[in-house]
Amino acid sequence: MMGAFDKFLNKVLVFFVFVQGMGLVILIGIEVLFRYALANALSWPEEVAGILFTWFTLIGTVLVTRSGEHIEFNSLLVRLPPGVNKALGVFNQLIICAFAVFMVIYGYHYAMMFTFEKTPAAGINLLWLNFALPVNGLLILLYALWNILKMITRGPAEAGNS
Fold it and tell me: Could you give the C-alpha distances from 77 to 82, 149, 161, 162, in angstroms and in order?
């Protein structure tokens, strides 16, 4: 059950990252074109690109959490007995879970403090920016818990590779 949902969610997230990446290239291209070629700088592409970049980065973090390809120092881990290796892998994912819960709780509170704020040039409600933290925190929490389950049932080496 979780395997099918995981694959679907991964495809959706990869699609969003692709669209956001293309959007960033287009927006920055427009900004450069208007600023340097037409000598008539636009103010809104920078704001929109900032929002896209925030979501792009955080969804990328979710995808890295899913795959287990985040930064880790495993030169010591590979020399440890399998039981210790598994325990440290689970501990690592629990730290990620704690940080994700922090992202959800404080990200939500921060977003709620600025519900009526808008960007100056584009007039976009800042909730589109500020909800990136709690939404992606939930997704990171989901994948970290899923990784813990896989580590317990399979082992640390296979947890991020599904």
Answer: 9, 19, 17, 21
If phi > 0 it is left, if psi is from -120 to 50 it is alpha, else beta; for residue 68 that is left
Q: Tell me the pLDDT band of 11, cut-offs 50, 70 and 90.
A: very high
Q: Does residue 155 register a pLDDT over 80?
A: no
Entry pTM: 0.83
Q: Which residue has the tokens 């956001």?
A: 20
Please give the single-letter amino acid code of residue 123: G
User: In terms of residue numbers, what domain contains 94?
Assistant: 2-159
Scanning 33-114, the segments in alpha helix (DSSP H) are: 44-67, 82-113
Which candidate, 78, 102, 100, places its Cα nearest to that of 89? 78
Asked if 68 and 57 count as a contact pair (C-beta separation under 8 A), the reply is no
Contact 96, 140 (CB under 8 A): yes
- Among 16, 24, 13, 18, smallest CA distance to 52 is for 24
Residues 34-48: tens digit of each pLDDT: 988 888 888 888 889
List CB contacts of 111: < 8 A, sequence separation 6 or more. 127, 130, 131, 133, 134
Number of folded domains that form the chain: 1
pLDDT, tens digit, 9 for 90 and up, residues 109-120:
999 998 889 988
